[in-house]
Structures are given as structure tokens and as C-alpha cells.
Amino acid sequence: MKNYRRLILASILVAPLLAYAVYSEFAGHERSPVSLASAGAASPEPRKAINKSSAAQGDSDNFERLSRELSKLKGELTEMRRISQLQANAARGYMSEPEAQDKRLADDAYKAEQERLNEERVAHIETNFRIEKSDPEWAPKTASTLQDALRQNHLDQGLAQGIDCRSQTCRVELNGDNSTGDHMKSIMRFIHEVGSEMPNMDADQRIDESGNMHTVLYLSNAAETGSSGGK
Which of 130-144, 147-161, 207-221 ranks highest by mean pLDDT? Predict the structure, then answer.
């Protein structure tokens, strides 16, 4: 009796399980075509999504590349404009402040060196003139000739500060306003006129703040005046 009851209880428990298994098997077969069809119909969508994603990534890469190239071109254009402006400034004599400062310093140093060399040159000429012996016959005759030449060129009226002749060299000191350039032209004509008798010449010229020109001429009939390049 007990065994019979157990059999009935087992049948009651197993029957639903078998029914569920059969139903599941049958339902699986019924749904599988639909699932396959659905899968087949839906399969292009992921591919389309993948293609769209790849295209979007490609567009983004191209945009970034074009942006980099555009930025590079802008930089090159800016540099070309800068170089062109520098070249134009140099052609017109313009320069940056540091360049201008360097040029001023270089010019000042060059000017100071030239002044120093000129002072040494003039000092050497002046020394040689001072130690030159005086010729009592030649000196006054030559001084008179020079005075006449100064008069003819309008350099005698308050402009000639003195004429000092020795044995072969004469020192002529002149002062004048050279604001118009006429004073210098008169000096050049004077030198030209006495050149046949006094072929060698050295000069020291200085212009003060007022524009007045102070000139000292060393005229000589010697082979050289004691200064290289003073002819």
C-alpha cells in the first residue's frame, strides 16, 4: 500500500515536468524558423552600424589631419610675412631696437677710434712742423704767395688766422661758417691754386656745435709731409 502511494506521488511530481519538457521542445521547434528569419533580417543592421562607425571615425581623422595642415600653413604664412617685413625694413633702413642699439654702439666705437687715429696723425704732423728749421728767404716769399691765393678766394678777411712757413712746409689756419658749403669750396680752390708750388698737403678739420669749420692745412713742397696718405 505504501509503495502504491509512493508511485502515485512520483507520477504526480513527474507528470508536470514531462509536460513542460515536451512543451519546451515543441515551442523551440516552432520559434526557431522565426528566430532564424529574424536573425537573418536583423543581421545587416550591425554591419550597417559598423560601417557607419568606421565612416565617422574616418571623417574625424580627416578633419584632424586637415586642421593640422591648416594650422601648419597659417604658421608658415605668418613666418613668411615676418621675414618679408624684416627684409622690407632692412631695405628702408629700419631695424629693431636691439639692432639699432648695437649699430649705434658700433658706430660710436668706430667714430671714437677714427678720432683717436686722426689726433695721433695730426700730432705727428704738428711735431714735425715745429721741429722744422726756418728758411729766412723761402718762408716769407712763400707766405706772401699763399696770402695772395687766400685773398683771391675770399679767405683772407677774418678767416685766415695765420700763415706760418718754415723751410719747406707752411701751416695755414682757417676758420669759417660752412653751413652753405661755400667755405669748403673756397678752401678746395685755394689748395688747387697753390698745388703747383706746394704739391703735398695734410689737413685737420673740425666742425664745432655752431657749424663753424676750423681747418689747419699743412702745405709742403717736400717729397712727403711726414704723414702717410696725406698727399
Answer: 130-144
Residue identified by cell 686722426 is 118
Q: Which amino acid is at 79?
A: E
Instruction: Answer whether residue 77 is part of any domain.
Output: no
CA–CA separation, 78 vs 87, rounded Å? 14
CA dist 110 and 39 (Å) reads: 94
Q: State the total domains in the chain.
A: 2
- Share the mean pLDDT of the chain: 74
**Mean pLDDT value across residues 144-149:** 92
Residues 115 and 35 in one domain: no
Whole-prediction pTM value? 0.52
In a domain, 214, yes or no: yes
Of 129, 89, 148, the C-alpha closest to 222 is 129
